[in-house]
Design brief:
With 261 residues, this protein is α/β, with parallel strands linked by helices. It is built from 7 helices and 11 strands. It has a 6-stranded mixed sheet, with helices on both faces. Strands 8-7-9-6-10 form a 5-stranded mixed sheet, with helices on both faces.
């Protein structure tokens, strides 16, 4: 079930994945608001970048936050939107559902990563054997049960030597909950896109899956054909930030040479 939330302030410092909908503004596009359909995978990056965008142009954001697979259905249901982000496969569905200003715009990919509590961030583990050892050493491992990262985690599990031995440790949770339980100490490891770990204080990525394991989370966006000038400014800013590598430290990377997201 999608959890749309309304954020009307021009200073968007925090977006709560579990806040109820206040006022979403009906089906009409608003002339002065960026109506952003956003996956949970981008929530923590958005927490970082939104204040800069808002301060620079005094643009307001109205955010509907949900899991990647929920984005096409949300738009198909008639919700107002000006920019939508999700996995490329779901953005392609949006392009079939709605009149869009342009085609799919790739943002990059977020590696599947393993968050733990702590302030010090040593070089993350990368080898599959090291990742498996980390999982076996943990007592409770949280992941998003219905999200894209959860699907990728299951694919990773199939590549491990002893996946059955981990079954009792796994804790499938709703979107946003793995990080919340990691921060509260209820689990030892949260399996999430790196974009949900790198921007969050008090945690770090103990391990990051290499691109070659093919368990990363690709992300893209598209614009409504009726999107306002504020939305186009935001899209241009995102593309520039992507191209300049400004999103890399936040866990959104570009595919290695010779690969595609």
């Amino acid at each position: 079930m999608a959890r749309p939330i309304s954020q009307r302030s021009t200073s968007v410092a925090h977006v709560d994945a579990f806040s109820p909908l206040d006022v979403h503004g009906g089906l009409a596009l608003k002339s002065d608001v960026i109506q952003f359909v956003m996956p949970v995978a981008l929530k923590d990056i958005f927490d970082v970048i939104a204040p800069e965008v808002s301060t620079r142009w005094a643009d307001q954001f109205d955010v509907a936050l949900m899991l990647n697979p929920e984005v096409p259905g949300y738009i198909a249901g008639g919700a107002a939107w000006s920019v939508a982000a999700s996995n490329p496969v779901y953005i392609l569905q949006v392009l079939d559902l709605a009149e869009c200003a342009a085609g799919l715009i790739n943002l990059g990919y977020s590696p599947l990563a393993f968050g733990v509590r702590g302030e010090d961030a040593p070089k993350p583990l990368r080898a599959l054997s090291e990742i498996e050892s980390l999982l076996h050493s943990a007592e409770r491992i949280a992941f998003t049960g219905q999200g894209t990262s959860g699907v990728q985690f299951h694919q990773l599990m199939e590549q491990l030597q002893e996946p059955a031995a981990l079954a009792e440790k796994l804790v499938p949770l709703p979107g946003g909950a793995p990080m919340a339980q990691l921060l509260s100490g209820e689990v030892d490891v949260a399996v999430l896109p790196l974009s949900n770990i790198a921007p969050v204080p008090g945690v770090y990525a103990k391990a990051v899956c290499p691109h070659g394991l093919n368990v990363h989370i690709d992300l893209a966006f598209c614009l409504n054909k009726a999107a306002n000038a504020a939305t186009h400014r935001f899209a241009d800013w995102l593309i520039d930030a992507r191209d300049r590598g400004r999103l890399d430290p936040l866990g959104l990377w570009q595919a290695p040479n010779g690969s595609s997201t």
